[in-house]
Automatic annotation (TrEMBL):
PANTHER family: SHIKIMATE TRANSPORTER. Its main location: membrane. The keyword Nucleus does not apply. Keywords: Cell membrane, Membrane, Transmembrane, Transmembrane helix, Transport. This is MFS transporter. It is found in: Cell membrane. It is a multi-pass membrane protein. The chain crosses the membrane at residues 27-46, 53-76, 88-121, 160-183, 189-208, 240-259, 279-302, 309-329, 335-359, 371-395, 401-422. It comes from Leucobacter chromiireducens subsp. chromiireducens.
């Protein structure tokens, strides 16, 4: 039987809307922390360590949360493959929102001492757990509902939540620093408002996600009693090499992506090049807007020219811009920053938009939630987790951005090599009747199952 992946237009629109809104809220929560880490957390929570060390510690908390994303992916992957995609999505949304809201009321070091940074780190870890489980569920809800010839575009829906979340986080922070609480007021109380806004967003996201039907692939799996009792064990026993290669693909995107979303480039433009804080945040918001459209375009291209080809174009562009982007910021002021961010946003979309569809098509149905979630989380650690910290350390050690650019070039080349090692599989049936086909031939080192049936009809 073919995967019942297509649905009525109204149903697909509902899935698209719920997926985009939910992931936007999740990533707003995640990025508002990274934005604040580069702007105020060093002063508020790590002040005794001094300016430079405090900034490193602040950026380190951004990365440490990534170490817990695999745990969130393990838990969400297991339960997503056993009890369903939708339930896990609702749980991760609530967990992320609760952690973000609590950061907004957290006392600072001056108020409660060493307990402040400890509690901050604990709440950031909870954000990491939630982010680790969120992405896989959102991806599968979108891709498994979609017709085979539109999986690339459908898979770009949850990807849009990242630039939209970053746009929202940067925009709200710019509003706070430039209009509502400029100067000392932002440091005193204004930084808290973006975190407290999360409690409103979480209610909206909860209602929307509860209204979406379960993925048709999981429904079919559950009806036939084909859930795996130990999906993670099966994943690493039979597909560890696939997990590693696919994780490296995302790592190539994440290193460059977290130069902006992780706060490094913002901090560099503000503190090293002395560009106005609000102006930098507005530029980041414009970049996120462009990132949205390049991601949407990449999903369309993934259906037209293939996931693999789209990725290779994106990685080639990344490799070409990693040195010029810092030259532009160093010599061009605010205009140079805008130009650099346009280049970054374009390349990031091309290496992010097709990811959801590609990941969904390389893992078997019964372990797919575990596969996409854990692979994504590992890729985030390898690429994005400590990218801002590594970049800051390279800058402080060498006194130049050339070392940072060399690091980003290596990450882009590694992502491109991993991309070449994977096969494109558009149109492969996603349902439980085709697990043998799904389990073979995903890499260039393995042979596809013979005489497979392309299920373009449902």
């Amino acid at each position: 039987m073919s995967t019942p992946a297509s649905g009525a237009p109204t149903s697909l629109r509902r899935v698209a809307f719920a997926t985009i809104i939910g992931t936007t809220i999740e990533w707003y929560d995640f990025f508002i922390y990274a934005t604040s880490a580069g702007l105020v957390f060093a002063q508020l929570f790590f002040e005794p360590a001094g300016k430079e060390i405090g900034l490193l510690l602040s950026l380190a908390t951004v990365g440490i949360s990534f170490l817990f994303r695999p745990l969130g992916a393990f838990l969400a992957g297991h339960f997503g493959d056993v009890i369903g995609r939708r339930a896990v999505l609702v749980i991760t949304l609530v967990l992320m929102g609760a952690a973000t809201t609590l950061i907004g009321v957290l006392p600072t070091f001056a108020q409660i001492g060493i307990a402040a940074p400890i509690l901050l780190l604990v709440l950031r870890i909870l954000q990491g757990l939630s982010a680790g489980g969120e992405w896989g569920g959102a991806v599968l809800m979108a891709v498994e509902h979609a017709p085979a010839d539109r999986r690339g575009r459908a898979g770009s829906w949850p990807q849009l939540g990242v630039p939209l979340g970053f746009l929202l986080a940067s925009g709200v922070t710019a509003l706070m620093t430039g209009v509502i609480s400029p100067g000392a007021a932002y440091l005193e109380w204004g930084w808290r408002i973006p975190f407290l806004v999360s409690i409103v967003l979480i209610v909206v996201g909860f209602v929307i996600r509860r209204s979406v039907e379960e993925s048709p692939v999981f429904t079919e799996i559950a009806e036939r009693g084909k859930q795996s009792s130990v999906p993670i064990v099966q994943l690493f026993k039979n597909h560890w090499h696939l997990v590693l290669l696919a994780a490296l693909v995302f790592a190539g995107n994440g290193a460059l992506g977290y130069m902006t979303t992780g706060g490094f480039l913002n901090n560099y433009a503000i503190n090293v090049q002395s560009i106005d804080t609000t102006a930098v945040l507005v530029a980041a918001s414009v970049a996120a807007f462009l990132w949205f459209f390049s991601t949407l375009l990449a999903g369309y291209l993934a259906d037209k020219i293939g996931r693999r080809t789209t990725f290779l174009i994106g990685f080639a562009l990344q490799a070409a811009i990693v040195f010029p982007i810092f030259w532009l910021v160093d010599t061009g002021g605010l205009a140079g920053l805008y130009t650099a961010l346009v280049l970054i946003s374009t390349s990031l979309g091309l290496t992010y938009g097709p990811l959801a569809a590609w990941y969904s098509e390389i893992f078997p149905a019964s372990i797919r939630f575990s596969g996409v979630s854990i692979t994504y989380a590992l890729g985030a650690i390898l690429g994005g987790a400590f990218a801002p910290l590594i970049a800051q350390m390279l800058l402080e050690t060498t006194g130049s951005t050339a070392a940072v650019s060399a690091y980003l070039l290596a990450a882009s080349l590694l992502g491109g090599i991993a991309t070449l090692c994977l096969r494109d599989r558009p149109g492969i049936p996603l349902g439980p009747d085709h697990e043998v086909e799904q389990a073979t031939g995903a890499t260039m080192f393995s042979q596809p199952a013979p005489a497979r049936e392309l299920a373009h009809t449902r």
